[in-house]
Structures are given as structure tokens and as C-alpha cells.
Amino acid sequence: MNLHEYQGKSILKSYGVAVQEGIVIDKVEDAVEAAKKLTEQTGTGWYVVKAQIHAGGRGKGKVQETDSNGVVLAKGLGEIEDKVKGILGGHLMTAQTNGKAKKVNKVLIAQDVYYPGEAETEEFYMSVLLDRERGRNTIVYSTEGGMDIEAVAEHTPEKIYKEEIDPRVGIQGFQARNIAFNLGLSGQAFKEMTKFVVSLYNAYVGIDASMFEINPVLKTSDNKIIAVDAKVTLDGNGLFRHPDYAAMRDVTEEDPTEVEAGEAGLNFVKLDGNVGCMVNGAGLAMATMDIIKLSGGNPANFLDVGGTANAERVEKAFHIILKDPNVKAILINIFGGIVRCDRVAQGVVDAYKNMGNIPVPIIVRLQGTNAEEAKKLIDESGLNVHSAVLLQEAADKVKEVLA
After folding, report:
1. Integer Cα distance of 347 and 74 in angstroms
2. Would you say 264 and 310 are in contact if contact means Cβ atoms under 8 Å apart?
3. Cα–Cα distance between 147 and 152 in angstroms, integer?
4. Tens of pLDDT, residues 24-35
5. Percent of the chain at pLDDT above 70?
6. 66-116 pLDDT, tens per residue?
């Protein structure tokens, strides 16, 4: 589950991570009051207005209605309302929104942390994630903060460092010091960075996150280390331990079809292909997508109906798959272990009749308990449903109906 910047920062702050302070608003008329309150809290006189959407690259992105960037600087209270008007309620497109603009329902008014001082400011990159191959949590960091980390990896990979952390013992002091040393810090900034790294890692573990990305981590001109941005992704499997974080979910930032499927208890991910998939079991779903690809089609979705593929559940899955106008065929691939194949077949027939005319051909492959009875039910239904027993047979039928 992805969080907005302001939500991620609030969690980080609760773990002792120093962050750029800010106040989130959803109405233009609240902008000036929020800015005044922020000045009282931090003493800032300039304000950074940030669009709150689940995407990076907001500073370079454009709001379609106003041509404003998604992150702008207001040099005083006199500018704050106009800057907010240029973003709030508009549709922001960035390099990470997949060619579609996202509506900005909230903006964060944040303190200006690039204030003058004796030393220059420096920007770093830092992320925490799980290296599944190594079985270790890993802190990835670089001196090239504020930039696209993929570009840094491609052109100057020597500027990217990794610190592996054994989850059994947690982060050690020498590891935090090693990170601060590689970032070229000394004195007070060195001490501040070691504290920052330890607090950041503890937050990552404590909230069951799957990824933190802080870009940039800023060394201010007075040697403070703070998170200027925060991209936080929570592990959905751990949300039962964090109901307060689960309540932070913003469904307006998610695909509405995926939200509907989740509410129905279906595991669904929308893809860009032309063959809808309805399968029981994640592993079988992956194999089904492979066989669709090999047959000349492209999977339009990942959909796992689970172990209770009854008529109601199958009908709901049909509705969700058919919301995609690109779907030209549907492949149902069920292995009858916990669930009997004949019950699934009856569910398909009942769902088909309840929905009326389904405009695309359906291939049903049922294998396992009562598979023969299931095939007979499908074949004798009189509906535009093609039955198959072998996976290759199902693939051949997909190729046939797409021809």
C-alpha cells in the first residue's frame, strides 16, 4: 500500500526521523492560514507547495489546467494562495503516471529548508528495501540526491552504495557510520546522519514497510540532516498489525477496478493485454499468463478467485474482467483441489445466464476433482463456452478464437 508524502513523513517523524515540516490542505481558502501556522512552528518565511499524488517526478510534472509544476516555491504569504490555486484540483502528469494525469486532491505546504548559512547544502539519495536474493534488508544510498536514481545507476554506478543489514540483529553502529563516511560527511553532519540512518531503518522494520525512498535527504547549511521527500510503501500482508496505517489508504489514487475487486475478495491486477484470466491460485495464474503469451495473446489481467469459485464469485470476476474494453477472450483455468470442478463449471454456466449475453468467447479449462463431470456440464450448456482439459488445449483454443 502506497502512502502520500505527508503520511510517510508523519510516520517517519514518530520514529525520530527528522523531516521537512509541513501542513496538508485540501481547500485553497485554507492556504494562507496553514502557511501562517507553519511560520509560527518553524520560523520559515518561504513555502514549498507540493502536490500530493502517488507518483514521483512531481517537480518536473505539469498541471494540465494551469501549466504549473507539481512542486513550486512561494516566496512569502503574498504568493501562497496563487501557488496553491495552480496545483490543487488540477490534473498532474509526471514521468511516473504512465501517460495519464492524476487529480490533485491535496497539497502539502512545507517549510523552506534551503535557507542560507555558512556551509553549502548537499542532497543525498537513500532507500531501504528487501534484497530477496540475499535475504537481507538493504540500504541503497548515493551522493547524487535529487536526481533520477536509475540515471545515476546507468551513467555513474560507482556513486551508488549498498549496506546490507542482517534482519536478525538489526542495523549496527558501524554500518550507520560507514554510510555517513561514504557520503563524505564530517563533524556535526556526520553525527546527524548516523542518527538519521538508524531511525530510518528502525521505522522501516517497525511499520512493516516494503520500501522507503527518501530523495533527497538534505544536509542543510547548518548541518542538520532531514528528509525533504518520503516515498513509503507498506507491506499489505502486515497491515493487520497496523490498523491506523491501513486507514491511511487513499483509494482515489488506485485503479477503481482493482479497488472493486479487492472489496469482493478477489486478487486482481490490471494489465494491458487482450485475454482476460480467471484462475484459482497465484502460481497457476502466473502459468496461465505465460501460456496466453505463448499462444499469441497478451494477458489483460491477473485475477485469482481463490479457493471458493462459486457462481457469485465467478459472476463478479466476469463483471470486473469485462470492464476492460480491450478484452477479446476470457480464459478460465481452475485446478480442482479444495474446490470441485463441477461446482466451478456450474458457477460459470449460472453466471453466464445471469449476465445475459457475454460479448467475448470463453475458454474454460478445468482439471482435478470431477473434471470430467465439469466438462460435460460446459459442453451441454449450449452457451458460447469452449471447454478444455489440458493446458495446451486451452492455449490452442485461445489462439483459435483470437485468429
Report:
1. 59
2. no
3. 7
4. 999 999 999 999
5. 98
6. 999 999 999 999 999 999 999 999 999 998 888 889 999 999 999 999 988
Contact 300, 273 (CB under 8 A): yes
Which domains occur in the chain, in start order?
21-111 (3.30.1490.20), 122-246 (3.30.470.20), 256-402 (3.40.50.261)
| CB-CB contact of 17 with 203 (8 Å) | yes
Torsion sign across C-alpha atoms 349, 352, 355, 356:
negative
Cβ contact 197:185 at 8 Å: no
Checking if the pLDDT of 248 tops 90, the result is yes
Binding residues for Mg(2+), by number, are: 215, 229
Residue 81 designated active-site: no
Residue 78, C-alpha cell as written in the block:
503574498
> Bigger pLDDT: 40 or 307?
40
Report the distance separating Cα 187 and Cα 204, nearest Å. Answer: 26
Tell me which long-range contacts 23-29 makes (C-beta under 8 A, separation of at least 24). 23/108, 23/109, 24/52, 24/106, 24/107, 24/108, 24/109, 25/84, 25/88, 25/106, 25/107, 25/109, 26/88, 26/105, 26/106, 26/107, 27/88, 28/81, 28/84, 28/85, 28/88, 28/89
Q: Which of 117-131, 317-331, 370-384 has the lowest mean pLDDT?
A: 370-384
6, 47, 125, 201: the catalytic one is 125
Known catalytic residue: 213?
A: yes
Active-site pick, 122, 163, 213, 315: 213
pTM above 0.85, yes or no: no
Query: Would you say 226 and 111 are in contact if contact means Cβ atoms under 8 Å apart?
Result: no
Query: Which letter does DSSP use for residue 210 in this model?
Result: E
For the record, the C-alpha cell of 154 comes out as 546507468
**Residue ranges at the known binding site for substrate:** 280, 337-339
Contact 95, 60 (CB under 8 A): yes
The DSSP H or E segment spanning 125 is: strand 122-131
